[in-house]
Input
Amino acid sequence: MPELPEVETVRKTLTQMILGKTIDHVEVYYLPMISPHSLESFKNKLHHATLDAIDRIGKYLIFRFDTINLMVHLRMEGKFFLKPSDAPRTNHEHIIYHFTDGTSLRYDDVRKFGTHGLKHDKELHTTLPISKLGYEPSDSRLTKHVLKEKLKTDRAIKTALLDQTVILGLGNIYVDEVLFCAKINPTRKARRTSLAKCETLIECSRQVIDKAITLGGSSIRSYTDSLGVTGRFQNELKVHLKADELCELCQTPIRKIKVNGRGTYYCPTCQKR
Ligand SMILES: [Zn+2]
Output
């Protein structure tokens, strides 16, 4: 699943490629993927719309057209490709946005879990689940006091940090890396995190996510972004997918466990219970 740094890479890449283009017409081959579910309405609202900007809220891409916003979530396997309008459609291209300049943006999704919704400005921040999302690591509103409040739960810290209402944008890979950086055992109860550790967690989240964004994400498994750019962050991972390799700080073998069903990697020495 693409995580926040990968989605940011997609946003930057698409911005360079399609900003200023105007939609001629849209083809939809899988109706449950779009909202409103009325095909007529979806097509009409995008007809002759010009793309002014591409923003991101958490892992949602927001295509800001002059008339309406298109909110896209890539879910498990969503990818974009830019192709000539007359290029043949492949099996997994479910939505094609044709531009007036003879190019087209193809949304390719093997699993069909992605979503494309049209939203007015006002609706954007009131739409669930966007309205419930937490702050991203880089957001100055994310303070140790805010985090401490959000961690008042009996769940394991690993599970709590995967909840996007706590810190926005930390997925499975990055939570493992952040907990290693903060030297916190992933099974520790979230509510036992001290204020000082909350501060460390925020600093570590910033470091890990900033570095991943700089390097274009981690591209683990089959995920590649819209241009096939391969993220280099996977070379920087300290614990995730490193079972039995030696911790770079203390030489203890990295351990793999399951926390609430999620594969979790940590150093049993640096991250003592
Ligand atoms: Zn260690």
Remarks:
- Residues 220-230 have pLDDT under 50 and may be disordered.
- The chain has seven helices and eleven strands.
